[in-house]
Design a protein that fits this description.
By secondary structure, this protein is mainly α. It is built from six helices and two strands, in the order E-H-H-H-E-H-H-H.
Length: about 140
């Protein structure tokens, strides 16, 4: 079943804000929260992330009906990519080196910002590229 494209963009906007605060404060606890949000989104799809829940319960009822839909697999893959960067970031902020944590968090922030501001999902594009290369390799 396809999903409302506004949901992942809302999640990316919240993620952008969370990761920006992580970079400003260096809070490993806040990055741990974002890591959990990515993990839930990767495991169950963006609708199962906390931000997906907020979008579904609070934001979407206040919007008009969706006009665009997308397949759930690319955003789910993007959540897994975000999870990988958040895990590296969490490792860097808690164990070190700190620059690794900040760099990984910054990369995740850049990707989330692109999706929130411009609707360009790097993880989704990676998913499509992997699918195309996989089909050609067979």
């Amino acid at each position: 079943m396809d999903i409302d494209v506004r949901g992942p963009r809302f999640g990316a906007a919240v993620t952008t804000a969370v990761l920006a605060v992580v970079l400003i404060t260096g809070s490993a606890w806040l990055l741990a929260w974002q890591t959990l949000a990515f993990a839930l989104g990767a495991a169950g799809g963006v609708g199962h992330s906390p931000y997906g829940w907020v979008f579904r319960r609070v934001v979407r009822p206040r919007l008009g009906p969706p006009t665009e839909f997308e397949a759930p697999e690319p955003p789910r893959f993007a959540q897994a990519v975000g999870l990988a960067f958040a895990l590296v970031g969490l490792l860097g902020l808690t164990v070190g080196p700190e620059w690794l944590g900040l760099a990984a968090t910054g990369a995740a922030l850049a990707a989330a910002f692109l999706n929130a501001a411009f609707g360009y999902c790097l993880g989704c594009e990676m998913y499509l590229l992997v699918r195309r290369v996989g089909v050609r390799a067979k």
